[in-house]
Amino acid sequence: MKIDSVIRVKGKVQIYNTKGELLTEADNLEVDTGLNIIVNLLNNNPAFTGLNYFAFGTGATAPTSGDTSLGAETFRDVFTNSDTGTNTFIATLFVLASNCSIHIKEAGLFGNGATAVANSGTLFSRALIDYDNSALQNDLVFSWTATFTAV
Question: Domain tally for the chain?
Answer without folding.
Answer: 1
